[in-house]
Amino acid sequence: MYGEVITTRALSPHLMRVVLGGPGLEQFESTGDADQYVNCFFRPDGAPYEVPFEDDDTRDLPREQRPFPRRITVRRWDDERRELTLDIATHGEVGYAGRWALHAQPGDRLQMRGPAGGYSPHAEADSYLLVGDESALPAIAACAEAVPPGRPTVVVVEVDGAADEIPIESPAALEVHWVHRSDASGDPDRLLADAVAALPRAAGVVSAFVHGEAAATRAVRRVLLGEHRVDEEHLSCSPYWRRGLDDEAWRSVKAAWGREVAAETFPPPPAAPPTEGTTR
């Protein structure tokens, strides 16, 4: 499956929107998940094949000529127009996905597989918490649009600075907090966790979505499962990337990291003090 670029535009200094269409998307079927994504395959410059290609066309090539896989969030799928919108985080000329998005022209093709997904805001939740960095911003924006109307929803997003803030629309009772790295002096792994820890603890069932950098999401997870007492059943926590590692290096250790995080335990909350007149 592949899409052909229709339009591109910058949403912010570090986020590009690419709209894809064409006959290569005829078989695309949305999962209906708010966080659905596609596995995209970026062709290196000078590779001896064109999109679309078969796996057999690339399997025996040197590694530097094989396509580089990256998971990209589906920001929007228009079933009537058969158009796929991807919002892709960019970091200048670093990274295959971001560099491709910066230079994509109408008619360029992008090979992909999917979609897949696993999270939509739980309908039974009393409130929602959506947390992440630029890499998770497209999924956060899609989730915000899927929240039941009027339901309290807090969004906390870490970006480089004010220029990276984008509008987030939602039928919910929405509260958005932006955390600017450029203004911060503390531990970069704790910026989001500290912002979440400062929020009032929500009553009732909280549906939480925490995606982004590995150490940062782990720190937020500890806050939510610890002091905020969010039920793990209602927590979607996914590390998209790891500070200091490129994507290939992160893929090689991600499973072990996930097992280590999943093994963390949290003590039960302290028992409420007895009310007056209660016997022991």
From TrEMBL:
Database matches in Gene3D superfamilies: Nucleotide-binding domain of ferredoxin-NADP reductase (FNR) module, Translation factors
State the SUPFAM superfamilies in the record. Answer: Riboflavin synthase domain-like
By its UniProt entry, which InterPro entries does this protein fall under? Answer: FAD-bd_FR_type, FNR_nucleotide-bd, Riboflavin_synthase-like_b-brl, SIP_FAD-bd, SIP_fam, SIP_rossman_dom
Instruction: Kindly give the CDD domains that the UniProt entry links to this protein.
Output: siderophore_interacting
Q: Which GO terms describe its molecular function?
A: oxidoreductase activity
FAD-binding FR-type domain span:
1-122
Where are the annotated segments for Disordered?
A: 261-280
Domain of life the protein comes from: Bacteria
Report the protein name in the record.
Siderophore-interacting protein
